[in-house]
Structure formats: C-alpha cells, structure tokens
Design goal:
The protein has about 100 residues and is an all-alpha fold. The chain has one domain (about 1-70). The protein contains 4 helices and no strands. The longest helix has 17 residues, at about 65-80.
Length: about 100
C-alpha cells in the first residue's frame, strides 16, 4: 500500500501526472478497497480517505502538496499496525507501474 501511495505522489509531484493512465487508477482502487474493507475506520475517516483518493484521481490538476499523501500513509500505517501478518497478493500482470 505504501508503494502505491508513493507512486501516486511521485507521479503528481515529479511528473505532473503526465503519465497518468488506468494503472494509477488501479493504485487508487487498491488503497480504497484495502482501507475501506478493514472495518475499523469510522465514517469520518473513511470520508476523508475517499475524498483524498478522489482528489488524487483529478489527474488533470495534480495534487502536489504532501499533506494528502502523508494522511493516506498514516492510515496505511494504522492498518499495518493491526494487520502485521503478510497478506499474500498475486502479481497482477496488468499492473506495470
């Protein structure tokens, strides 16, 4: 999850989202699905996460400040601290980013 967040950050801050494609959308979906399905975040936090991801998806107007990406990283770390066991994920042949 951290890699996905950092790839989104890098693309916006360093590239101005010039390379944005559906693979970056896959990162957004992965982050949202993982954090949303956990069941431990309250509605306020889930709304914040969804709003942050929706803002990232506005790739025409790249979000280049750190606060949004840092917030998602914090939520990913909260998730990690409660789910320390590795969760096997098969390599997605469609994700080349």
């Amino acid at each position: 999850m951290l890699r996905a967040i950092e790839k989104l950050r890098y693309e916006a801050q360093d590239n101005g989202n010039i390379n944005w494609d559906d693979r970056f959308e896959m990162f957004c979906e992965y982050i949202w699905n993982t954090l949303n399905s956990w069941g431990k975040f309250d509605d306020v936090v889930l709304t914040e996460i969804k709003n942050d991801i929706d803002r990232i998806r506005n790739y025409i107007n790249p979000y280049v400040k750190d606060d949004l990406y840092d917030r998602l990283t914090d939520h990913a770390m909260e998730w990690y601290l409660q789910n320390r066991e590795p969760i096997k994920r098969d390599k997605d042949p469609n994700q080349y980013r």
